[in-house]
Design brief:
Length: 278
């Protein structure tokens, strides 16, 4: 999960810059302006849901309702929402849900489905369970087929990476299961041809390719930022997979990003880490 949170923080300064970097060495990480965004807030909500709400006696609708309530709490009460950059449709959904206590999904295919799913990729022992719960996290709001697919793709990539699959095996599985055409493109082609986007169909495969053509966690995040697109979210998703594959986040980056989080958030992150290693 910290791989996603760190990617979000490290990419936040570049989110609206819209600059394509041909040379990733020109990108500076650990800027004074780096802060966590809505990506991190909703990732934490998913982690809390997994830790405290998952009960085999609950059906899927009950599970989604519990997660919906956590999304609203994290969006409106846990942090200052004006500083997090929530999408307009999601923000309206949260406000309506708090006032009306109605939690109908909004059929979105935005990349919010992929940015918040990383805890699911770590939490379960089987790919089947991982895919089931990834879909549930999407369906709370992003119940469009592309939203569901985006969440499931990122969660599956994390699961496969942490269970020792090679990059080629991960790519082949994702291509067969999710059929994103962009997964067949090289990183350089995607970087040159991509436009700024915040939908799953574009940014999920871009994130996967940024990871596939990386050498370590840091280069996966740099690749994600160099697209000049929705940098914090693409770095969040690429970083989530990279953390699982490379065995963690480099200490300097991790310490910098932990310094951007409050004590309550750090306690939750540490508790989640202990739980998945139990």
């Amino acid at each position: 999960m910290m791989g996603a949170i760190c990617g979000d923080i490290l990419g936040s300064t570049y989110e609206f810059e819209k600059v394509k970097y041909e040379d990733i060495s020109e990108i500076r990480l650990m800027n004074d302006t780096d802060e966590f965004t809505d990506d991190t807030a909703l990732t934490l909500a998913v982690a809390e849901w997994l830790l405290y709400d998952i009960d085999k006696s609950c059906d899927d609708e009950e599970l989604k309702l519990m997660l919906a309530k956590r999304f609203v709490t994290y969006a409106l009460d846990k942090f200052d929402p004006s500083q997090l950059g929530f999408g307009a449709r999601f923000w309206r959904w949260c406000c309506d849900a708090k006032i009306l206590h109605e939690y109908a999904p909004i059929h979105s295919y935005g990349n919010g489905a992929g940015m918040r799913v990383s805890p699911v990729g770590w939490f379960f022992d089987t790919l089947e369970e991982t895919l089931r719960f990834a879909k549930l996290t999407a369906d709370v709001t992003h119940n469009h087929p592309e939203g569901e697919k985006g969440a499931m793709c990122i969660a599956a990539a994390i699961f496969l990476a942490r269970t020792g699959k090679s990059k080629q095996e991960i790519k082949e599985y994702l291509l067969e299961e999710f059929a994103y055409p962009l997964l067949n493109e090289t990183y350089e082609t995607l970087r040159k041809e991509c436009v700024w986007s915040e939908i799953c169909q574009d940014t999920v495969p871009m994130s996967v390719v940024a990871f596939l053509e990386s050498d370590n966690y840091e280069s996966a995040v740099l690749n994600a930022i160099a697209y000049g697109s929705d940098s914090d979210t693409i770095a969040d998703m690429a970083g989530a997979i990279a953390e699982a594959y490379y065995g963690g986040v480099p200490e300097e980056l991790l310490n910098f990003c932990r310094g951007r989080l409050n004590e309550e958030t750090l306690i939750l992150c540490d508790e989640f880490k202990k739980r998945i290693k139990a």
